Amino acid sequence: MAFVTQCKNCSMCCNSKAFDCDEWFVSCSDEEVKAISIHKGIDSNEYFYIGNREGSKNNAIKTLENGDCVFKTDKGCGVYSVRPEVCKKFAESSPCLFFPERSTLVSN
Ligand code: SF4
Ligand code: SF4
Question: Counting atoms of ligand 2 from 1, which one is nearest the CA of 71?
Answer without folding.
Answer: 7
